[in-house]
Amino acid sequence: MDVGDTVLAAICGSVSIVYRGLNGTMDLLKAPIVEQLEPADRTRGAFEDLLAELSHPTIGTRALVRSLLLQCMILLFRRRLLAGDESMSWIRGLTYEGLWDVLRMMLGRPEGSHSVESLAALAGMSRAA
Fold it and tell me: What is the pLDDT along the chain (129 residues), one digit of tens a residue?
């Protein structure tokens, strides 16, 4: 939708990931990500590339759209994390080796009876840490 210089775009998608032995679709976003992107913003450029490819499909469009959508999602996740969005705090677990096993356990077995003590032991940390 174009209103003067303002463009409203909505993009929906899901990504299946394979990361350190964990694979599948993870529903870790509980609310949509809403961003206002300035014309020179790198994230906006990535979305414009995605929309341009979708607008004019040709040979290889499906593969390119998957790649561009993943790029857009990574840029949005990074942007929200750096802005201090608490809903993205789970991403920090990917950067700490000691927490990776804990994150994988919770995501792989969300129904499990996890406790602070059991997860701390798995991470090799104290309960306080």
Answer: 444 566 666 666 665 555 555 555 555 666 778 888 888 889 999 989 999 999 999 999 999 998 998 898 889 888 888 888 887 777 766 677 777 778 777 777 778 888 888 888 888 888 777
What pTM was computed for the model? 0.60
The Cα 85–Cα 70 span in angstroms is 20
Is the CB of residue 101 less than 8 Å from the CB of residue 125?
Answer: no
Would you state the torsion angle of the CA atoms of residues 55, 65, 80, 25, taken in this order, to the nearest 10 degrees?
130
Q: Checking phi first, is residue 124 left (phi over 0); if not, alpha (psi -120 to 50) or beta?
A: left
The whole-angstrom separation of Cα 28 and Cα 7 is 27
Distance CA 12, CA 115 (A): 34
How many CA atoms within 13 Å lie on the side-chain side of 55?
A: 6
